[in-house]
Design a protein that fits this description.
Blueprint lengths: L3 E10 L3 H9 L5 H4 L4 E8 L8 E8 L2 E13 L4 E9 L5 E11 L5 E11 L8 H18 L3
Antiparallel strand pairs: 1-7, 2-3, 3-4, 4-5, 5-6, 6-7
Protein name: MLP-like protein 34-like
Organism: Heracleum sosnowskyi
GO biological process, one term: defense response
Length: 151
């Protein structure tokens, strides 16, 4: 079992892929209204929403536990509809030396596909792979989709 890992999940969404990308790229502070049971807040700590190098404080719940993390926006690619965050403070860093979160929206086909990937390095081999985070982001996807579907 290695210390460096990568998890990937891909799912189709019925909502507009451009809107989905925009939420993570420039409007993450709106997420708590779309998925209030999962995301409780997204505050700008430094920089500007939608700008690489900005720092964001995320408040969320997972498995009944309240979590707070600080992420740095590592990359935003408007053409590829991709956003990358690096966790720099918080609960995850108790188990992982490095944790990168990448969300990519593919709008080139008939369906819009969202791909989440997590690149990480465990602090030691006893740490399990963070599969619960894949379940978490899939719940967020579903909530965003429900929020944007016509009523």
């Amino acid at each position: 079992m290695g210390l460096i890992g990568k998890l990937i999940c891909q799912t189709s969404i019925k909502t507009d892929g451009d809107v989905f990308h925009e939420i993570f790229g420039t409007r993450p502070h709106h997420l708590h209204t779309m998925t209030p049971e999962n995301i409780h807040g997204c505050d700008l700590h430094e920089g500007e929403f939608g700008k690489v190098g900005s720092f964001i404080i995320w408040k969320y719940s997972m498995d009944g536990k309240q979590m707070v993390e600080k992420h740095r926006v590592e990359a935003i690619d408007e053409e590829q509809k991709q956003v990358t965050y690096k966790v720099i403070e918080g609960e995850l860093l108790k188990s992982f030396k490095i944790f990168l979160i990448n969300v990519h929206v593919d709008t080139s086909g008939v369906d819009n596909l969202v791909t989440w990937s997590f690149d990480y390095e465990k602090v030691d081999e006893s740490i399990k792979d963070p599969t619960e985070y894949l379940d978490f982001v899939l719940r967020i996807n579903k909530d965003i989709e429900t929020h944007h579907l016509p009523k």
